[in-house]
UniProtKB/TrEMBL annotation:
This is Bifunctional apoptosis regulator. The keyword Signal does not apply. One of its GO terms (biological process) is proteasome-mediated ubiquitin-dependent protein catabolic process. The keyword Endoplasmic reticulum applies. PANTHER family: BIFUNCTIONAL APOPTOSIS REGULATOR (PTHR15898:SF13). It is an enzyme of class 2 (transferase). Pfam families: SAM_1, zf-C3HC4.
Length: 460
């Protein structure tokens, strides 16, 4: 009640001042009337921050009035919703006092025009006003979300149904028949049956069908496969005279001997062989792609990083080069041209590397690759918007400090994941994996729309 009386008394006083200002405008002798209106002075319309005439006066809940830009500068520097004078917290988002603004425009029009021109020419004040207004827009959007009623309810129901659908799909996929390739990536090569050896050979490419029959006739199992060399492959009954084909088979044999099992050659095989690592990489690539790619370089160079680099930044070769020759070339160290292209993309567009890698796997993972590509594009837009906000708010100097804090945060989260991973059920990990893979792009679309469609704010 007392607060309402304060506002009423303030409005009455403003109306009286406006009446007096109208009398001043009707008089033919302004200096004489200005002297007669001795009750009006600039001090009564001054801001308690800059001690000058109020520009776009903003009234707080405590009753104090400040220039709009002064309040924005105070809010940005202190990051507190407090009155600069009495330190009382304001409620909601402060609005411009229209009556007081009209009164100051009539009484001090020339002074206000000069002050507004000075404020508009100051980029720091414009950025502060923009950030202050965006804070108010986000605050209003949050209140709207809290009171959406039925829309908010149905959104929650849709989210719950989506979670149920993910769990059902994970249960269905995990309870289905085990694929032959899933067995090969976990079963030791010395225990492979002749049928599994033929399956491994077919997985090398369509050209391997030419040599399927000799392996079946010789009944080659895992132990015999490990004993094969270049001379045996060149002689009868295999008779692999094509040098490129023979090099591919020998290169894969070397990898099988080194790992003891079949190396994963697609996303699902990699997930089956490295369940914890695949979940970690999926979330880490979203949060910090540069650190994640650097992690692969340090700890998984030959098996993951090298094929990733050759896929994203392929070497310049003849277009008529067969597929099997390109397979062998992807296992060698990259050239300096590949390294230069990779480092430029790594620093500027890390998500483009992920999109290019997914694009190369469209024939194998049709829909999954498209989800990854769309998600990489959305994450690139969000990263660009974050850098633009830092530039507009003149906080680009804080970027090294933010990078250090982000590095520390990612290291602690990765260490916590490594400790908790053995205790998390596989079913829960699969749910998290498929949620991040297929539903993360939908969430990022909403974030991008909020960033791009955010209403711009005029400084004055």
């Amino acid at each position: 009640m007392s607060q309402q009386m304060k506002w009423n008394s303030a409005n009455d006083s403003v109306e009286e001042l406006m009446d007096e200002s109208s009398l001043l405008s009707e008089s033919s002798d302004p200096p004489q009337l200005k002297s007669s209106a001795s009750g009006i002075s600039e001090n009564e319309f001054s801001c308690h921050c800059c001690y000058d005439i109020l520009v776009n006066p903003t009234t707080l809940t405590c009753g104090h009035n400040f220039c709009r830009h002064c309040l924005a500068l105070w809010w940005e520097s202190s990051q507190k919703n407090e009155c600069p004078e009495c330190r009382e917290k304001w409620e909601g988002f402060p609005k411009i006092n229209i009556l007081l603004r009209d009164a100051t425009d009539k009484l001090f029009g020339e002074v206000l025009q000069r002050r507004k021109a000075e404020i508009q020419a100051n980029p720091k004040i414009s950025r502060s006003l923009l950030a202050f207004q965006r804070y108010g827009d986000n605050l209003g959007r949050a209140k709207t979300t809290q009171h959406k009623g039925a829309g908010f309810f149905f959104s929650g129901v849709l989210t719950a149904l989506t979670c149920v659908a993910v769990m059902v799909l994970v249960y269905h996929w995990s309870s289905g028949p085990v694929d032959q390739h899933d067995l090969l990536i976990t079963k030791p090569v010395s225990h492979w049956t002749p049928e599994e050896v033929v399956s491994w050979l077919e997985n090398l490419g369509p050209w391997a069908q030419l040599y399927k029959e000799p392996f079946q006739q010789e009944n080659v199992n895992g132990r015999l496969l490990l004993m094969l060399g270049e001379e045996e492959l060149l002689k009868s009954p295999y008779s692999i005279e094509n040098l490129a084909h023979r090099r591919v088979i020998l290169a894969e044999l070397e990898r099988v001997k080194a790992l003891g099992v079949k190396p994963p050659q697609n996303l699902w095989e990699y997930k089956a062989a490295n369940a914890g690592k695949s979940l970690f990489l999926l979330y880490a690539l979203k949060r910090s792609p540069r650190l994640t790619i650097f992690y692969l370089y340090l700890f998984d160079y030959s098996e993951t990083f090298l094929p990733f680099l050759h896929t994203c930044c392929p070497a310049v070769t003849d277009s008529d080069q067969p597929v099997e020759s390109s397979f062998v070339s992807s296992q060698v160290d990259p050239s300096w041209q590949q390294w230069a292209e990779f480092l430029v993309k790594y620093c500027l567009l890390p998500y483009q590397l992920i999109a290019e890698f997914a694009w190369d796997w469209l024939a194998v993972h049709y829909w999954t690759s498209r989800f990854i590509i769309v998600n990489a594009m959305l994450l690139s837009v969000l990263e660009g918007c974050a850098l633009w906000r830092l530039w507009m708010r003149a906080r680009i100097r804080t970027l090294p400090q933010m990078m250090w804090s982000h590095l520390w945060k990612m290291l602690t989260q990765g260490f916590a994941f490594a400790l908790l991973w053995p205790f998390v059920p596989q079913f829960v990990c699969n749910c998290l994996f498929y949620w991040a893979l297929y539903f993360s792009p939908i969430i990022n679309i909403d974030l991008v729309v909020q960033q791009l469609m955010h209403p711009e704010t005029v400084a004055l």
